[in-house]
Amino acid sequence: MKATLNEYFSRKIDENKFLITTRCGTFILLNENEYRALNNGQYKNNEKLQRQLIESKILMTEKNTKDIINRLKMQYIQDKSFIFMNCIINLTHRCNLNCLYCHANSANLEDKQMDMDYATIDAYIDFVLNLPYKNITIEFQGGEPLLCFDKIKYILKEFNKKKKKYNKNLISSTIVTNLTLMREYIANYIIENKISLSSSLDGPKELHNSQRAYINGSGSYDKIIYWYNYFFERNKIVGIMPTITSNSIKLGPKPIIDQYVKLKRNAIFLRAMNELGRGKKNKYLSPQKKEFTEFLKEAFDYCVYLFDKKNFLIVERNIFSLLRNITLPVKQYMCMRRPCGAGVNQISITPNGDIYPCDTARSIQSLKIGNIKTTNFREIIINTIELRTLTQEFQPLCDTCAYNCFCGNCPVVTYAKYNCFIEKTPLDFNCYVNKYILDYIFKKRDDKKYKKYFKAILKLEI
Ligand code: SF4
Ligand code: SF4
Questions:
Q1: Distance from the CA of 55 to the center of ligand 1, in angstroms?
Q2: How far is the CA of 414 from the centre of ligand 1 (A)?
Q3: From the CA of 29, how far away is ligand 1's center (Å)?
Q4: Residues 6+ positions from 372 with CB-CB distance below 8 Å
Q5: What angle (nearest 5°) sits at the alpha carbon of residue 121, between those of residues 120 and 126?
Q6: Are 243 and 296 in contact (CB under 8 A)?
């Protein structure tokens, strides 16, 4: 059979275990002898190996070439697609909490100058209605958006009134809130209008309160648990997420995961604190990459233990996203794509109307891509190109990495850490973490217990 070698990348995963990948996301694990045979051409004398290499598309034949092209096509459509736009609106910089790592660096509660005015809100509505996207999501962030609840209502009312004329489909609207200003009349409005809620819970009470306190220093834990349960009893799940700091590392992942299990969550996103906004001032809280990956490993093993011994299924989102990227051709999570969704699937508007390609980017002035009152969409795309060319897709070290087809890396987090966009692979925090998780998956995937767990989590819709 006539077969040609596809472009392939390799990585030693373990003793006698080599991972071979292709650009179209197929892979095979070989032992050392097979790996040598692949490299020196001896595979041609080994029928079994040749067949496996064809199946995994390391070898291209007339028959499998079409499939390779289709996979590449799907990747291209997905990664460069303009399927939807998440239009984040920061109605205020003010907040009633003083979280130690706030990436928005929230402003004083009294400083009403920090709120978006109605002229800017109208410009936002107009801007969103005129975007060349049919599918829109609106996300209210801040500061604390519930300080501006009337403005949230106004935006949704106006948008819903006009969306038909502009042929827009509002897929979802979300309020990202610390929940402490929730009131029953607001909760009723949220439930009636099917608005999603997203909040933060760092773990057990003591840890949470030490990081997410009111301006007077008292903790916010009790309020969050109260409102989480309030919505839960009314069949509404509030999305919650912890931020992992060096305090969380000291505590270890088990009490944090247990807290989520107690709240009946089947997903937890152990996201390391970013050195942005107030997180830059409190850099000392930022976890180091080695301790963070050890923390993640303990967390993954604990989730597998809970599934195996306690029959409780909970998944960590970093491993979930990468496992999905390995297994399925479509990459759902926009931050684990090449390039990521910044500027094409997400924009973030500050209270004065400035546009940033992503919410994480909004405390970095140099990443501003326009203002809703003066910049049109074409200019936004042009201004975003620079950020997009700095993503992993164009990094020479990523380009030759065995994980390039599964990985995604945040250019803004890299910038925040090193004050420069060019990745310091393998020094880069995200790169180190992603490699660690991907190695973990490939090391464990043939172990019966882990295999069963991986299969179960892939069925989750989270
Ligand atoms: S970020 Fe690191 S792990 Fe990911 S593709 Fe680049 S070099 Fe590989
Ligand atoms: S810039 Fe970072 S946080 Fe923003 S969409 Fe890209 S990967 Fe995600």
A1: 25
A2: 12
A3: 19
A4: 120, 123, 124, 127, 349, 353, 355
A5: 95
A6: no
DSSP, res 315 = E
pLDDT for 100-122, tens place per residue? 999 888 888 888 889 999 999 99
Where do we find the tokens 């051709």?
A: 329
Question: What is the per-residue pLDDT for 425?
Answer: 60
CA 190 to ligand 2 centroid distance, Å:
27
Q: What is the mean pLDDT of the chain?
A: 92
Ligand 2 contacts (CB < 6 A) are 334-335, 340-342, 346, 358, 360-361, 410-412
Q: Which ligand is nearest to the CA of 271?
A: 2
Residue 388 phi/psi, 5° resolution? -70, -35
**Residue 446, Cβ neighbours under 10 Å: how many?**
10
Tens of pLDDT, residues 283-332: 999 999 999 999 999 999 999 999 999 999 999 999 999 999 999 877 77
Q: Which ligand is nearest to the CA of 432?
A: 1
Give the Cα separation of 193 and 185 in Å (integer). 12
Interval 302-311: pLDDT, tens: 999 999 999 9
3-state secondary structure (DSSP) of residue 349 = strand
